[in-house]
Amino acid sequence: MTQSDSYGEAFGKRLNAQATSFVTKRALPQSTIAVTELRYENPQYELSTPPAYEDAYLVAVHLQNFPNYQYWENGRAAPVSPIRPGETIVYDIKRTPIFHLNSAFHSVHFYFPRAALNVIADSAEASPIDELCYRPGVSRDDAVMRHLAQSLLPLFNNPNQASQLFMEHVLVAVGHHVAFQYGGMKLLDRPIGGGLAGWQEKRAKELLAANLAGEISLATLADACGLSVRHFTRAFRQSVGISPHRWLVQKRVELAKQLLQNSRLSLLEITLACGFADQSHFTRVFTTVVGIGPAAWRRYLKI
């Protein structure tokens, strides 16, 4: 099978852009999924090289204004429009997407073969996904995609410090969101009793786990689950036993434990990596949850 040129170094080479990527074959059964950060700083004012044919999608979050986006799909021009910072655009690779390289750009591209999206649909006991629904060459504001892409930026800047488990969490969370938001994935109704349905609880936890180092609003979580903020908060507590914020704090402490045990990062670096406001806040929360401070806990592990 030909190596895809829609993620990783091959993707960057195809667009003459600097590429930093994470690729996994274990997050979903028999599927390769990936995320690539692209930085293109010297516009060449030429058409991009078309991708190799494959039944897969790229869902990209642009982080820099692209004022005059000229795009073609299957040789047909799309309406010229801007892509604003934080907006999301979908590419169907089998439709030979190309665009005019008339502007610098900085973007995060999530790569999903259709087979991977159908693994997600199958795990949610939903119908297979036929096609993603999008307007060629037209971006949209997607708060979930924006938050998830931004959560990865510190790790792209320091890839050696990236947790593989965390990156896989983010990729799977994005995959579920894409399947639901763009693939029309139909999910089971919420159970009687007021709690979250299984898919809603899974999605909420995936989004929270993928944003340990940042912030994601209750409104974004509720929207991803198709609920109001009030209903989501009540249903989450009923299903999980604690509030979304408390669950997030516990996961941050778990990540901090992993970093204290398996890395040489300073307490300040761990504070920032786990999304705490400052080191004193980190120490206070860690001590409350674990019973001793992070420095003492790290020393204890070495005994």
From TrEMBL:
Species of the source: Rhizobium tropici
Recorded GO MF terms: DNA-binding transcription factor activity; sequence-specific DNA binding
Residues spanning the signal sequence: none
Domain HTH araC/xylS-type: from-to ranges: 202-300
InterPro entries noted in UniProt: AraC_XylS_family_regulators, Homeodomain-like_sf, HTH_AraC
UniProt entry keywords in alphabetical sequence: DNA-binding, Transcription, Transcription regulation
UniProt protein name: Helix-turn-helix transcriptional regulator
